Amino acid sequence: MIDAELLKLMVETSDDGIVIAEQEGDENILIYANPAFQRLTGYSVDDILYQDCRFLQGDDRDQAGLAVIREAIKNHRPCRQIIRNYRKDGSAFWNELSITPVFNDADQLTYYIGIQKDVSAEFEAVARVRELEAEVEHLKVQLAQWQSTSPMLQDPTH
């Protein structure tokens, strides 16, 4: 079994944000956040302890990924989704959020572990590739139209 101090060191030095939330009624109250979570979000532990982590969503609560997360939490299932969250300064970031329920010996849900990874650069790169692909398709259409109306391209012997 892994030593408790080693486990703590691993969590504290992780590059990904790690939080532990305790289920209290319909809310999952944050009881721990590692330093990477604090760096990622700009919130200190004092800012976030005993709050439901929905505060990271701001008013942006109609995201498709959030419905998947809510369903997973309702059914006590793990899930992973990319959602838009907001830092303390109001700036947005794309968060690959992994949520895993933790059960006690009596098989009762007691905690959730949340792991957050800023995937903004990857998300924006994929969006840019899609934009460029659409631009290429548009240029292909324009080129085809130009080729069909250019007499020189229709009969290269002229």
TrEMBL record:
* This protein's UniProt keywords: Chromophore, Flavoprotein, FMN
This protein's source sits in the domain of life called Bacteria
Q: Where are the transmembrane segments?
A: none
| InterPro entries linked | PAC, PAS, PAS-assoc_C, PAS-like_dom_sf
Looking up Gene3D superfamilies in the UniProt record yields:
PAS domain
Asked if the record carries the keyword Cell membrane, the reply is: no
Residues in PAC domain copies: 76-131
* Domain PAS: residue ranges: 3-76
SMART domains xref list: PAC, PAS
Annotated SUPFAM superfamilies? PYP-like sensor domain (PAS domain)
Record-given protein name: PAS domain-containing protein
Q: Give the species this sequence originates from.
A: Pseudomonas lurida
